[in-house]
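Thread: "does anyone have the structure for this chain?"

Original post by V.I.:
We have the sequence but no experimental structure in hand. Need at least a predicted one for the grant figures.
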Amino acid sequence: MSHPPTASCRRPTIGTWRLHPGHAMSLRPKQGAVLRIFCGQVWVTQGLPAGATPDSAGDRFLGPGDVLAVPAGVCLVMEPVSARGDTAPVHFDWSDASALAGPGRFDREVLSPARELGAALAQAVTAMARVLRGLLGYSEFLVAGRGRVLSPLESLRS
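Reply from O.Q.:
Generated one for you, tokens below.
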């Protein structure tokens, strides 16, 4: 897997963590977590969690855009992979795995349509108020007849 060098990476988003070359970091999530690499390349070693297969453990190289799901209880060690003299840090995000999960069935089938209905009703009420305000603005034309105000003499004839 080939990734662009660290120097050519876009500036990462605010809130990412940094790991400088020559340093290593050990993480052990109590619940499932997700490691997302934004800029740079890392060498990741995962220990074997209880009841896991050997395929889920071992070494991996991750680069920009790569995402790794880390099960609860796994010891994960990561270290930047950089060229000699490269001092740019690796930028990554470490977040709870539940943040990746999409909305549940109740959210999808009940809450989301209810929010859409509320927004539609609010727009309908706003449109009705604007129509009524517009009609009230024409009230003098409707009362006076044909868009002009009658003089006192004209109003006696009718």
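V.I.: this helps a lot. The first strand starts at residue 17 and ends at 19.
O.Q.: and The chain has two domains: 6-99, 105-157.
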